[in-house]
Write a structure and sequence with these properties.
single chain, Rossmann fold, 4 domains, six-stranded parallel beta sheet, 31 helices
Length: about 850
């Protein structure tokens, strides 16, 4: 029966408890330990039953319990303290205020298809979303004038359970938005804000929701409103669900709808950070807005959008990028292209790395990188992989110079650290570790922590993890209808004092979840040892359509059910933020076994470091730049094999060898006091070296200072000075029209082929510029060591700054350099466009190399 109408029913609390709503609706509670204690204290059973959802707790708690709470002076004192702390937190002067001045409005919009803020807001699937959530929290801590933009999914990502045979099954429970820690966003007219998107033959409406994340806000769009047709109401039903048409619809709502939310709130000139390419349509919508509302030409609007867009890619393989066939793009964007005044081939070129590649589909990475001024990967190695992966877009550029940089991910410390470890840091590092986690001097104080205290704290967390795992295992067996003896065995699974290894992640095949079980007899010997036992806790989901991933889960579950194994290996269902938090806070070793270089970053191992765990990982993602011998273990030496089966065999043996010869002996090497002091020393080394580097505060500060602030400055300047914007666009157009006439006529080099280290080398080049002037270009000497294939490696680009006219539109550029080391060097000369407003020299993707590499003087 359809409802005639609807009524939004809010929790009714006694006046003395009204501050509970203020706390519940600000997600700062999710990383504030005392706030979590208070909310759990209201009704511990209800707190667990609601999935740690304070709004639902307050909406369903019994009235007599509320009356008890209102009469509990101790609880009221705690409530007043936390509510007062939240208000003070929102008014405090922040790092951004002190360093860059107070902003009167949001200056950055952070777009992401998913946000993993807390388990009670299930609109995330994995690492991308958790990273986005940590980005928002760190922005709040630092006071960055930032808002988040995303989608609010009716079903979110699936919940996982296993059938009797260990095969993954999925359920999609509905999210009840009115019982989540968010509210409808109220527009300037005092009414709930809605935005519209133009779809083929119809208009799609989206309700906008507002979640407060400390000092910053997250806006999410939901198309499940009565005015939409049934199929359109389902656009935001599932995260990453449906076919290509559903994906393009979701990404239109996210990107274009998200911009319309910002415009409705009055924030037109704002820097947009695209967290992966899903939201790249936002750049197209901003071009349309600038054309329509500010009367800009297409080129002006395009330039302003580029100068104020930042793009972060998370994908290490081309197959992970969304692509759409041209007919589908035509269906949704023909009218848009005509409306902004761009021919269809030119429009399609925005979604192609090479504009002349007319047969390729519309690629969202290409769209994002073509319409942004900065692009970056999420670890140093991932930046290198991305440059190689997308070098086809810059065919004349050496791969190391392709303009895709790297900002290595970090984690929001307070969201992942255990209360016990947090209190330990408070005692010995001081409170500044919370507000300044990137300060290396603070983390040097880990040496002040007594070994006994650090180890006992970690042991308590391992004991809690074992208890948690047992409870969760029992519940999933009962739900499955397991036999009594299986349930009884689950009560006794794992040992509180045994070396505990954790492995939890998405079950994509490249992550090789079964690498540890490749040699069954060898791992069985390690698991069943009575003097030095080990145990393994595993969790993770496979994509619903990933049958290979599901087979891996089934294989592990079958192995764990063997009578001699079941107490040593457990698979915990439905991996989410809550399960991840318990794992990273209690394991001794975090295992990561991706096939290099397919792990873009990986942040779960970072969370372990802050909690006193150690990492054993393939040298991939963040571990490639984090690993040192005294901080954890590397599986292999970073080799890459053409034969994946051989690679699995070699690295499985390397892992077994590490366990047998180093990890297990070191863990069980105890002194007379029962402490594994060499192990504890490694924990302290890991904390001291890695904690200040791999945290979200460092990451967000890096984005702010390297990307956001320059983009804000350039956006403000160009938006305010239309003449400057127009002049820059005319300059670019002039460069494009005349670039074909730019040639390197002659390169004059030393008439000898030998020199000595440090001796000056003079090189000059005669360049024909046609209608361009020397001020329009930069001529560079490109010099470096020669490899065995005659290619220049580790090159330096040295401007040839001395310029003299050479007649007939030609100019002679010259300069000097020296070689800092011996060996065979090679060099060339190149010409690039040059303008003070260019973000980097390769912004226009124009470069001219000589047809002949070397010409001796006459």
């Amino acid at each position: 029966m359809k409802a005639l109408s609807a009524i939004d029913v809010q929790p009714e609390l006694p006046e003395r408890l009204s501050a509970l709503l203020e706390i519940a609706y600000n997600l700062r509670w999710s990383w504030h330990p005392e706030a979590i204690q208070l909310l759990r204290r209201l009704d511990p059973d209800l707190w667990e039953a609601t999935g740690h959802n304070p709004v639902l707790v307050l909406g369903t708690i019994q009235q007599d319990r509320l009356e008890q709470i209102a009469a509990d002076e101790g609880l009221l004192a705690q409530l007043d303290r936390i509510a007062g702390g939240l208000r003070e937190y929102r008014k405090q002067t922040t790092w951004f205020d002190k360093t860059h001045g107070q902003a009167d409005r949001p200056r950055v919009a952070y777009f992401s298809a998913e946000f993993g803020l807390t388990e009670s807001l299930p609109i995330y699937s994995g690492g991308l979303g958790v990273l986005a959530g940590d980005h928002m929290k760190a922005a709040s801590e630092l006071g960055i004038p930032l808002v988040g933009v995303g989608l609010l999914y009716q079903k979110g990502y699936f919940q996982q359970y296993l059938n009797a045979d260990g095969w993954q099954q999925e359920t999609y429970p509905d999210n009840d938005f009115y019982n989540l820690p968010l509210r409808p966003l109220i527009g300037h007219d005092g009414r709930p804000l809605r935005v519209t998107m133009d779809f083929p033959g119809r208009t799609v409406l989206a309700q906008v929701w507002d979640a407060q994340v400390g000092r910053v806000r997250l806006f999410m769009m939901d198309t499940n409103v009565p005015e939409n047709a049934a199929d359109d109401r389902a656009i935001t039903a599932e995260l990453y669900g449906g076919d290509s048409e559903r994906r393009i619809q979701q990404e239109i709502v996210l990107g274009m709808g998200g911009v319309r939310v910002l415009i409705a709130l009055g924030w037109r000139h704002i820097v947009c950070h695209l967290n992966e390419g899903h939201s790249a349509f936002s750049a197209l919508e901003r071009i349309r807005i600038f054309r329509r509302d500010e009367g800009m030409t297409f080129d002006q609007a395009l330039e302003l959008v580029r100068k104020s867009t930042v793009f972060t890619t998370h994908t290490p393989v081309p197959a992970g990028i969304d692509e759409f066939p041209e007919p589908l793009v035509r269906k949704y964007f023909t009218d848009f292209a005509a409306g902004v005044g761009v021919e269809w081939p030119a429009f399609m070129s925005f979604g192609r790395l090479r504009p002349d590649d007319h047969d390729s589909p519309f690629n969202m990475f290409a769209l994002a990188v073509n319409l942004s001024y900065r692009a970056n990967g999420v670890s140093r190695l991932h930046g290198q992989v991305s440059r190689r992966m997308w070098q086809g877009g810059w065919p004349e550029l050496p791969v190391d110079e392709i303009p895709i940089g790297a900002v290595t991910n970090g984690i929001h410390t307070r969201s992942w650290i255990s209360l016990e470890m947090s209190e330990l840091y408070d005692r010995y590092l001081g409170p500044a570790w919370v507000s300044q986690p990137a300060d290396q001097t603070i983390w040097k104080n880990v040496d002040r922590i007594p070994d006994e205290e650090l180890w006992r704290t970690h042991e308590r967390r391992r004991e809690r993890l074992v208890a948690f795992a047992r409870r969760r295992l029992v519940r999933q067996l009962e739900r499955r209808g397991a036999l009594d003896h299986e349930i009884q065995a689950a009560h006794e699974a794992l040992q509180p004092g045994a070396l505990t290894i954790g492995f939890a992640r998405r079950f994509a095949t490249y992550k090789r979840a079964t690498l540890l079980f490749r040699d069954r007899e060898r791992i069985k010997r390690l698991l069943s040892a009575t003097d030095r036992p080990i145990q393994i806790i595993i969790a993770g989901k496979a994509h619903p359509r990933d049958l290979q991933g599901k087979e891996l889960i089934k294989e592990i579950v079958h192995f764990s059910r063997q009578a001699d194994i079941r107490r040593h290996v457990v698979f915990l269902e439905d991996y989410d933020v809550a399960l991840a938090r318990n794992l990273v806070q209690g394991v001794d070793v975090w295992l990561n076994t991706p096939r290099r270089p397919l792990e873009a970053c990986g942040t779960s191992g970072m969370k372990v470091v802050f909690n006193g765990g150690l990492n054993a990982s393939i040298l991939d993602g963040w571990w490639d730049e984090a690993y040192t011998r005294d901080c954890g273990w590397a599986i292999g030496s970073g080799e890459m094999y053409a034969d994946s089966a051989l690679q699995d065999e070699v690295e499985a043996n390397a892992l077994y060898h590490l366990l047998e010869e180093e990890i297990i002996p070191l863990f069980y090497e105890r002194g007379l006091d029962g402490l594994p002091r060499p192990w504890i020393a490694r924990i302290k080394n890991s904390m001291r070296e890695l904690c200040p580097r791999f945290n979200a505060n460092r990451m967000v500060r890096e984005y702010t200072e390297t990307f956001y602030l320059p983009a804000i400055s350039e956006c403000d300047t160009l938006a305010a000075d239309r003449e400057a914007l127009d002049a820059y666009c005319r300059w670019k157009d002039n460069i494009r029209q005349n670039w074909d006439r730019v040639t390197i006529v002659r390169v004059e080099s030393p008439d000898h082929e030998r020199t000595t280290v440090g001796k000056p080398i003079t090189v000059s080049a005669t360049v024909a510029l046609g209608a361009l002037s020397p001020e329009d270009v930069q001529v560079q000497l490109y010099i470096g060591l020669l490899d065995t294939q005659g290619e220049i490696r580790d090159a330096a680009a040295i401007p040839l700054t001395e310029c003299q006219p050479s007649g007939e539109g030609r100019w002679n550029f010259s300069g000097h350099t020296t070689c800092a080391r011996s060996g065979r060097h090679g060099y060339s000369v190149r010409v690039l466009p040059s303008h003070p407003r260019m973000t980097h020299p390769f912004e226009m993707r124009l470069i001219r190399w000589p047809a002949i590499q070397r010409i001796r003087p006459d």
